[in-house]
Amino acid sequence: MESVFCTVCGSGDEEDRLLLCEDCDKSMHTHCCNPPLDGVPQGQWRCPSCVAKEVSKIGLNYGFYDAHDKYSLFTFAEYANKFKTEYFNVKEPEDVPDDEVEREFWRLVFDTEDTVSVKYGADLITSKVGSGFPRKGDDHRGIDAKQKQLYANHAWNLNNLPVLKESVLSHIETGISGMMVPWVYVGMCFSTFCWHTEDHWTYSINYNHWGERKIWYGIGGDSASIFEETVRKLAPGATLQKDIFHHMTTAVNPAVLIAMGVKVWTVHQNAGEFVITFPRAYHAGFNEGLNFAEAVNFAPIDWLSKGRQCVVEYANVRRFCVFSHDELVLRMASSCEKLGIAMSLATLDEMLEIAKRETQDRTLAVQNGVALSQRENFEVIADDARVCRYCNTTVFLSALACAHGRTVCLEHIDHLCSKCPPSECLLKYRYTVEELGELVHKLEERTTLYFDWKEQVDNLLNDSRNKPTLSAVESLLETAKSKRFPHTSPLIRLQDISKTCHAAAEKARTLLNGKVRTRTKTRIQRADTRMDLAGIHEFIDELQNLPCDEQTLVHEIEDLVKRIEAWQREANEAINKCTGDHDAVPTSSNLRALAEHGEDFDVRLDEVDQLWKTIEIREWNDNAKKILEWSLAEGSEESDEFLTLRRWKPDEVLRLVSDGARLFPNGGPSSPVNRLHSLFKTALLAESKVELLLEDHTANEKDLENAWNEIRESDWLDTKTMCRMREEVVRLCAVQHRVQQKEVSLNETLDLVKECESSKFLINSGLYDSLLNVKDSLLNFTHRLVNLFQKPASYYNLVEIIRDRGDLAALVEGQSLPRYLNEDLEPEEQWLQLGEFGTSEEMKQHLISLRAQSRTLISSLQLVNAQRTVADTCVCASLGPADADLLVCILCRAKYHGTCCEWDPFLDRLPECTYLCVRCLRGRRPCIEDVEAACNLAPQNSLEVGCWAWIEMRNRPTRSTPLPSLFVRLKRGKRNSGKHSSKKERKRSRVVYHKDDEQCSADTCLRPYGETVGWILCEAGCARWYHYVCIGMTAESAKSLPSYICYRCSNTVQQIAQHPVAV
User: Which GO BP terms sit in this record (predicted)?
Assistant: First the structure.
C-alpha cells in the first residue's frame, strides 16, 4: 500500500492523479511534481530520481566525460603532440596543413563509425592552477619585475577586465568562477567546444597565450533565434528538452547552417590574439593542436538591457541563474553616487523597468488575495534557497511563499501551492515600492546633467521654425563625448544628423572644388560617377531638405550652376563654328582650353565630350596630313636637321589608322584613312627592302644610292631599320661633300677614313681606297718634314716651326710663357693649328699677316728685353751669381745664364759669341731643295703642302698696312664691361683676339696676335680699350697701377686743371 502514497505530500488521496514510477515503487501527485503537471502524461512515467539516474548513465558516454588522469603542461604537451603526429603520420605537428585539420575534424564529428577520443584541459580555474597573466597579488621578482607589475595592473589583463570601473560585474561582491575569475584551457588537436552562449549573455574574451590556432565559428546575437529554430528543424527529437541550447553538447557543421540561411562567421585565433564574443552570440570551435588559452566574462554598460532579456529567456526554459540580475541593479542604484553618468543612465533605465514591473506584480498579487507581507533580506540567503520553484529564477526584490516552504516569483504565483490559499501566503519583499521610487529619484538627480543636455537636443531638433546649424549639432555631440554620455536615442539621432550633413557637405565641397589635376587621366577604365546638371539640381533640393541649415552651400552651388550654364553656351558656340561654315574658327589651343575648363567643373557634361572629339578630329587631320603630304626637298639629306625631323613609329601610325576608322566610320576608298593605310603598307614594304640591303655584306655606295632613291618617299617611317638607312645616307652625302672640296688636310683625311670604316657601304667603295692613298701620302709627307725641321726634343710642332712666331705680344707684355716638350706627337698633332682655316688661301693670308706684325713686335721685344734683368727673361727666373756668365739672344735680346741655356749644334755654324734662344731657334734649318722634294711627293691640294708656301713668301715685300684679320674660325671672347667689372678685373689680361669692331684705341695699333693678348681700360671716363703692347705697357706695370688714364684723358685733365670753370 505504500506505493499509493505520494512521496512528496505523503497523502494517498486523489488516486486518479497519482503517478506510479515504472522503475521503482515511488508515487507522486501530478500537482506535486516539479514543475507541476496539468494532467496524467501518456506513456511511461519515471520519478525524478530514476530520471536522474538514467541521465547520468547517458552523460558518461555522451560526447564528454571527466578523466581521472592528471597532467602537467609538459606531459600534456607530449601527449598532444604525439597524438597529432601519429594520427596524421607526420614528423612534426606543424607539418599538417590547417585546412586538412578542419576537414578531418568535421568528418569525425558526423562519422558514426569512426571514434576518436581526445583530451581537453578545460574550465581550469586560475585561482587554483594559476593564470597566464601576472596578477596584482603575485610576488613579482627578477629583472622584469617592473614589466610584470605593469601587466598585472593593465586593463586588458583578464584578471582585471571583469572588475574595471565601467564594468557592471564590478558591483558583484563575490567572485564568480569562470565569469569574474578567469578559466584556462589547455587544448590539443580536435579538442572542441560546442555551440553555446555565455552565462547571462555577457561578453566573453579569450586570449591564446601560446600554441597552435584555435578555430572559432560565431553567430551574431541578432541571428540567435534563427540558429535555434534551424537546429530544432535539424534535430526535432533532441530539442524537446527546452534548455538543450544551454548545454555545450550541440555540434552542427557551419556549412549546414549557412546552407539553411544562418549567417556564420569564422575566426582563426593565433597565439597572442584576443577573441571577443558579444551578448547572445552563439559560438563553437576546436583546437588545431596544442595551445594554452585563458578566458573570462565581462559586462560593459550596454549589457544591462541584454542581461534583463536573458533572465526572461532563462525563466522560459527554467534554467537556473548564476546571479540575481535584480540584485545587481539594486546594488548599483544604492551606490549611485559612485557611478559615472553613462552607468547611472543605464541603471536608471533598468530601475524604471524594475519599479514598473514590481508595482504591477505586487498590485496583481494583492488583487489575487495576498494580504500578508514582510521585508526579507534576500541577499543573505543562499542563491539555491531562493529560487522560484517553477522557473528557477533567483528572486531578490519579491517572492511569494506558502506554509509548506515553497517559493515562487510574483510572475508564477499560480504555481505555488494547490492547498494554500493566497490569503495564507506571505509576500516577501526587499524594498517597498516607495523605496524603489526614491532610488529612481536619486538616479534622476544624478543624471540631471544628461537630461539638461537631452532637453537642449530636444529643443534644437524640435524647433519647427528654424533648422539647427551643423555647428550646434557638433557642439552637443562634443558635450556628449566629453561627458561620456551613453549611446541613447538622442545621441544616435544627433550622430545620424551629423553624419548625413557631413556627407552632404563633403559632397558639396567636392563639387565646388572641381577636378584635381593629375599627371594622368583618372576616369579611364572606371565608371563615371560625376553628377550632371540634373543631378546637381536634385542635390540642391537634397541640401534644402537636410535636417541642418546649409543655405550657404546651396547659394554656392547655385552660382556654380550659373557658371556651368554660361560655359555650355560658349562651348556650343565653339562647336557650331567648327562644324559649320564659319570664318572665325577657334584654334586647337582655344578649344583645348575650353574643354579643360569644362573638365575643371568635374561635372558630367556632353559638351566636354563633343569638344574633345572635335579636338581629336582636328589633331588627327593635322597628323595624317603631315604623313600624306610628306616630301623631301632635293639635298635634304645634307642638312643638319635631316636626322632629327619628326617621323612616325609604326604603332603611332596604326593608332592613327585605328582612330581614323573610329572617327570616320563611313570613309570611302579615297578617304584620308584609306590613303594613310595604303601609305603605311608601302612604307612597310620599303622597310623590308632596306632590311635585305643592310644584310647584304657586298653592297656598296651605288647600291645604297639606288635603294634610297627607291624608298625616299617612305622616309616618314621611324623604325630602327629606317634610321640605320638614313644614317648611312647622311654619312655617304657628308663624305662625298667633303671629298669634293678642293683642299684637304691630314686631320680631315683621317676623319673621312674613319667614316668610311664605320659604314658597311663605303668600306666597299673605290672612294675608300682613294682616301687610304691620300692618307698614306700625307703621313709620309709629315714624317719627312718632321725629320727635316723638328729637333729630337722639341717644344714646337711643325706649324709653330714653319710659321712666324705667335708669342711676341705676350713676351712684350712680360707674360710668363712656360714651354713643354712635345714627346711622341701623332702626325695629325703636328698640324694642329691648320684646323683654324677652311682653305689654304685663308692660311696663307694669316701667315702673311703674322709675318707683318712680327717685324713690328720683334723690335718692341728687343727694346723691352734690353731693359729687363736676367731674372725677367731667363728660365730660372733669378738673378743668379753676380759674376755669372750671361748670354744674350741676338734676335730678341733676352738674357740667359750660361748654365741655363740649351745648346744647339746649329749655333756652332754662327760667329763666335752669337746666341739664339730656344724661342727664336725653334727648329732645324733644312735645305730648301729637300723641302721641295718632300712637297712634290705629297697631294698638292693639301693644307700641309700649302703651308710651305710661306717659305716662298718670305722673299716678298711686306705690305705697309696691316692686313685685316682673317682668323674668323678662332673662338674669340668679349671685352670685359666697364660697367660690370671691378677695377682689378679691368686690368686683367685679355685672353682673346679682338674682332674688327673691337679695335684698339691707340693711334697706331700693332694688331698683336696671340693666345693671351693683354688689354687695359681707361678709367678716366672715356672707357677706351688699349693693347698693352700698343701703349708700351707690360703686364707687371698694369698690375701695379691703381687706375689707368690714357694719354687723351690725361691731356684733358691737365687742361681742366689749368683753366678751371666757375660753377
Answer: regulation of DNA-templated transcription
